[in-house]
Design a protein that fits this description.
Elements: H1 2-37, H2 40-61, H3 67-90, H4 97-113
């Protein structure tokens, strides 16, 4: 009987310990993710992608661009966003200045195709 109570007490302490670690780890991961996506270089690239997305939709609404043309531009933007995420994943959640410059050059190419 004593060993059963001791086992139950140890189990409860173990479960509480594991739960505390899980909660702490989850909070840390969430905090890192938020701060990493808010990194100034990443944010600048992603704001540009959002603006281009709105511009593309506006061009389609105004009849200045076909849905096929818009689809190609959206695909290009998705590729840039995917590339940005991969770069950040390899660099602790950040992108370097040279990576930002390369992504901006790609965005410039897409941007020039909007509104032609």
């Amino acid at each position: 009987m004593f060993t059963m109570k001791m086992f139950t007490c140890k189990s409860a302490i173990g479960v509480a310990f594991v739960a505390a670690i899980a909660v702490g780890t989850a909070a840390q991961v969430m905090a890192e993710t938020k701060s990493q996506t808010n990194h100034p270089r990443r944010e600048q690239v992603n704001v540009r992608l959002e603006n281009q997305n709105h511009r593309i939709h506006q061009e389609v609404r105004e009849g200045k661009m076909t849905r096929q043309q818009a689809g190609r531009l959206h695909r290009d933007d998705r590729h840039i966003r995917h590339e940005e995420r991969n770069m950040a994943r390899q660099n602790g959640g950040h992108i370097t200045k040279s990576e930002q410059r390369g992504l901006n050059q790609q965005e410039n190419a897409v941007s020039r195709q909007i509104g032609q």
